[in-house]
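Lab notebook page, bench 4
Experiment: in silico fold of construct C2
Operator: M.H.
Input chain length: 244 residues
Purpose: comparison with the prior construct
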Amino acid sequence: MAFSDLSSRDPGALFERVPKATLRAHIVERLRHAILAGDIPPGAPLVETALSERFEVSRGPLREALRQLIEEGLVVTVPYTGTRVAELSVEDIHEIYSLRTVLETFAFEQVWPRRDDRFRAELRRRNDVLIVSIDAGDDRASILNELDFHGLVYEASGHKLLQRAWHGLRGRLQLYWAAHHRAHGRRGPKRDSHDSYIEAAFGTDFDAMKAEIADHMRRGVETTEKFLRSMPDLPGKPKRGVHS
């Protein structure tokens, strides 16, 4: 499905004329919102001419915006094919789960002996901000706020390569969480979804923290996998009449 075929989704309401100031930021924000809301589906081509006409902008700021979304992992460039929204396969879900479990456990291992009142207060504050966005029904904000919540332990670790790995996962996580929320029919995670996580992070038992991380990553994965398998043209999904 091409971007130019999205007229049935009322693109005029999604993509109003972009103000001349900070064009790139406006384009990034609106494209990110449309991708995470599912208005531009995974795998949809992003054609520069169509996007330029939609936003009434030149290709310069448009290309800058696409480059940022590529760096975030929401958009990919496929050789001989073009630029398109990143697709999220069942295999991606399992890879995200397994890698995040290892990374977050390692991050807490680095931070564990150095947790102080500031760390605890900041983790609590970020969870409060997340809850506000959940209560407001703002799925886009809740996704970004959940990223900030989990990002604290990576920031506090001081481990640059670990922080780089976390940054590389953020785009895929946004796609994952957006699909996860749609799978559950809600506009964000549950309000209490991080209560046990915070309790373990504030505790003294690192083994309990490791167990909580593993359980936290596993929650909802099966439901999201079922949701992804129900989507048409899912990467890696056998076509009708084709046996795996």
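Observations: The chain is about 65% helix and 5% strand. The first helix runs from residue 11 to 14.
Next step: discuss at group meeting.
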